[in-house]
Design a protein that fits this description.
The complex is a heterodimer of chains A (467) and B (318). With 467 residues, chain A is α/β, with parallel strands linked by helices. Helices cover 61% and strands 10% of the residues of chain A. Helix content of chain B is 34%, strand content 29%. The longest helix of chain B has 16 residues. Chain B is elongated, with a radius of gyration of 23 Å. The chains are: A alpha/beta (467), B alpha/beta (318).
Chain lengths: 467, 318
């Protein structure tokens, strides 16, 4: 005697494997999509930059600086000012902002970078203001000395030789107006860190823009300092000196040095394939109703559990096949696989979870459709938008929902497929282990379980009870 | 003589009623079907046959009434007692004949060896052995219909409900199927409820026949008794050359003693009479006086179809 749910699972697998349309729809189509994505997005430089705002986050660690100008002491916060500049700056000749600033913590920003929700994470160092003050001082000193420097040098050459003192400061001071001193010279340098996926064209464009902004910002600080010095000394139009104390440095997101956009999207295509199950499951069950085979099963000893568990098993096997096949194709097409054998086992596990979520949605959908065709059409209508909303194809705009367990959740995380996509990317692309993705994985399981319960109850009530 | 004790009944429907809002699909239907009999269940389209059968097999909940299977309430009776062959072809197209039978066998918890043995036997009985490993999608319509019947009995049920099992079959396949149905009764002692639109089939196979219409039971008896007691007598069918005179002729013929009923369909008169052969000369004489010509005339015994039309009328249904 064959266990009933097993018999139904085997029946389902035989039907699916013999139905050419199913094989094309569930396996070949996602493979073709994978090949197309690898071709189009397999090169980091394959997209133009455009003039859309770049998604960035700024971690401002700047401590500020205290300066005394004309005996007035003040605290300067160039970090905040620079952040404000990034927020307000627009593309030349347009009202379009260059950057969309996301107000998140450093950890949250790191997660968003990995998910592709951010193009770049900018870290302003602690000594940013001090470095810019150094830069300003150097410029002011240069401006002050440019006019009187030679004269003072000539006058004090002998004094210098005798005392061994730095001639410019003492000598130049005597030439300055009353109550005025030359700015103190210091040699503080700061590096603004630009972190991102170096294979992502969005980061490539953003880091170029940001580097320019950093350079221009320092230049403006220097110009302002030069102007102040000129005004104090009654001079005109000294040219600002080029002393670079602030620079931008690119720091690739760990493990992304050689990644392309395709590497980022591969997990999304696997999730898309899993989402294709929604329509297929709904269509399958609608076909059982349409053709009366469900009635034949209902009058037998079959229980609701047998049908639902048998269906679940069938589609779990298909989900496993989808994950393994698409992963294999992705690797063959150049996907940078960071994990080992364990990562494949984990990917299969989360593929199954994504598959169960799709089956659950399929159960729900078929409960409210009147025939097979309607189920198929509705399946496509639902699975395509859900694929986009789960970030299967493209990064999504940031919509923070809240923070829990030290993790920031976005609105899209309410869809289990979003979480499965994130987890698959973490596991396969960044080589993360189960512990690293525990929060997302846990939420994915909870959401899938809830969806499954709703799907089973609804389908059982609508389709499996006597009319 | 049938055993009339309660144990003799394979299937009993008592006061079975199904309402859909204001519509009564089945109205207080009471049936007692004996073990081992072939029970014909006739009615025009929309009469309530399928609704009644669906309540009997548990797919529909009755608004009122009960169904007893072998004396037990349907809810407590083993599901294996019933086998259903729906009117539509209810098959898994991508599976082979053997695989279809195995799935249904598994659903009734049949041991694998029993399923294999019964599959082999049924496929042989229904001339499908050569197609055992052929996918259903590649079978002809007749083969599919025979497989549809096989699926109803793979689990060896006591009661088999066949809903128009021969619809769409060619004459050879139909005769083969009739033999199979008879063998289920004679060799395996099964009780068979046969729904059909083919009066000839019902007449040839059924021990008793129930005719229902508008959800109500109209008559229940053996085919012979039905033909004797309902619309009794012989039938003269007469095609008039001038159909427009049919009303006049019918009015005249009604005065002849022994004529029970006259009806007209497009100039074809159907005259039911107790002793039609004896009355025929008088009928012809009356028609002759109207100077109309008879283009065709036939005389035959009452049939089940006459009984059916007599009880359910000529109006078109759904």
């Amino acid at each position: 005697m064959t266990v009933k749910f097993l018999s139904l699972a085997i029946k389902g697998l035989k039907e699916r494997s013999r139905d050419r349309r199913s094989v094309i729809f569930l396996l070949l189509f996602p493979i073709v999509l994978m090949v197309i994505f690898a071709f189009v997005f397999g090169s980091a430089n394959s997209l133009g930059t455009g003039t859309a705002p770049h998604q960035i986050a700024v971690v401002n660690l700047d401590q500020g600086a205290t300066v005394t100008v004309n005996n007035v002491t003040q605290h300067i916060d160039y970090g905040a000012s620079f952040t404000q500049l990034l927020e307000n700056i627009t593309y030349p000749g347009t009202n379009t902002h260059m950057f969309a600033l996301n107000n998140v913590s450093a950890d949250q920003a790191q997660n968003m970078l990995k998910r592709g929700d951010l193009d770049a994470l900018i870290t302003i160092p602690e000594n940013f203001s001090q470095a810019l003050v150094s830069s300003a001082n150097d410029s002011a000193r240069a401006a002050a000395l440019s006019d009187i420097g030679l004269r003072v040098l000539n006058e004090s050459a002998a004094q210098t030789a005798a005392s061994g003192q730095l001639p410019l400061t003492s000598a130049a001071t005597s030439e300055l107006p009353a109550n005025t001193t030359l700015p103190t010279q210091s040699n503080v340098n700061a590096e603004v860190i630009l972190e991102g996926n170096t294979g992502n064209v969005g980061f490539e464009a953003a880091q170029e823009l940001i580097s320019n902004v950093v350079e221009q910002y320092e230049s403006q600080v220097q110009v302002a300092a030069t102007s102040r010095a000129d005004a104090t000394l009654g001079q005109n139009n000294s040219s600002a000196s080029v002393y670079q104390h602030v620079s931008a440095a690119v720091q690739p997101l760990t493990g992304t040095q050689s990644l392309t956009l395709f590497d980022y999207q591969a997990s999304g295509i696997i999730v898309f394939a899993l989402l294709m199950q929604v329509g297929s499951v709904a269509q399958d069950l609608a076909r059982e109703s349409d053709r009366g085979t469900l009635r034949r099963l209902k009058v037998s000893n079959m229980r609701s559990f047998d049908l639902l568990f048998g269906t679940l098993l069938t589609w779990i096997v298909i989900a496993v096949a989808q994950v393994l096949l698409l992963f294999g194709v992705a690797v063959a097409l150049g996907f940078v696989w960071a994990g080992g054998a364990n990562s494949i086992a984990l990917a299969v596990l989360f593929g199954i979870i994504g598959g169960i979520a799709s089956i659950s949605l399929g159960l729900l959908l078929t409960s409210f459709t009147t025939n097979e065709r309607q189920a198929a059409q509705l399946g496509v209508l639902i699975s395509i938008p859900v694929a986009f909303l789960s970030g299967a194809f493209l990064p999504l705009p940031t919509e923070i929902l809240g923070t829990a367990f030290g993790t920031t959740f976005e609105v899209y995380d309410l869809l289990p497929w979003t979480l499965v996509n994130d987890v698959l990317r973490e596991i396969l692309l960044y080589g993360s282990g189960l512990a690293d993705v525990a929060v997302y994985a846990g939420l994915a399981i909870v959401l899938t379980a809830a969806l499954f319960i709703v799907g089973v109850i609804t389908y059982s009530r609508v389709r499996l009870r006597p009319e | 003589m049938q055993d009339r004790s309660a144990d003799a009944y394979a299937l009993q429907a008592q006061g079975l009623t199904k309402r859909y809002g204001g519509l009564i699909a089945v109205d207080d239907l009471t049936l007692h079907i004996y073990k081992g009999e072939i029970f014909g269940f006739l009615g025009p389209n929309g009469a309530g046959k399928t609704t009644a059968i669906n309540m009997i097999i548990g797919l529909l909940s009755p608004t009122r009434g009960t169904v007893l299977i072998n004396g037990r309430d349907r809810a407590n009776a083993p599901k294996r007692s019933l086998g259903i062959c729906p009117q539509e072809l209810v098959l898994w197209e991508q599976l082979t004949c053997t695989e279809n039978l195995k799935v249904v066998g598994d659903m009734y918890d049949l041991p694998a060896a029993v399923t294999v043995a019964r599959t082999r036997s049924l496929l042989a009985d229904l001339a499908l052995s050569e197609k055992a490993n052929t996918r259903v999608s590649q079978l002809s319509g007749g083969m599919k219909r025979r497989l549809n019947v096989a699926l109803a009995v793979i689990h060896d049920p006591d009661i088999v409900l066949l809903d128009e099992p021969s619809a769409g079959l060619d004459p050879q396949s139909r005769l083969w199927l009739w033999d199979f149905i008879r063998s289920l009764k004679i060799n395996e002692g099964k009780t068979i409820v046969l729904t059909t639109q083919a009066m000839e089939e019902a007449d040839a196979l059924s021990d008793r026949i129930a005719i229902i219409d508008h959800g109500k039971l109209l008559q229940l008896d053996t085919p012979g008794n039905l033909k004797k007691t309902v619309g009794s007598g012989d039938v003269i069918e007469m095609q008039l050359a001038e159909p427009e005179l049919s009303e006049t002729i019918m009015a005249d013929l009604r005065s002849i003693s022994g004529i029970l009923e006259i009806s007209d369909t497009d100039g074809k008169l159907k005259i039911r009479a107790l002793d039609a052969v004896k009355l025929l000369p008088e009928i012809l004489k009356r028609v002759d006086t109207t100077r109309t010509r008879i283009s065709d005339i036939a005389i035959r015994e009452n049939t089940l179809e006459d009984v059916f039309i007599y009880l359910t009328g000529r109006g078109l249904r759904e």
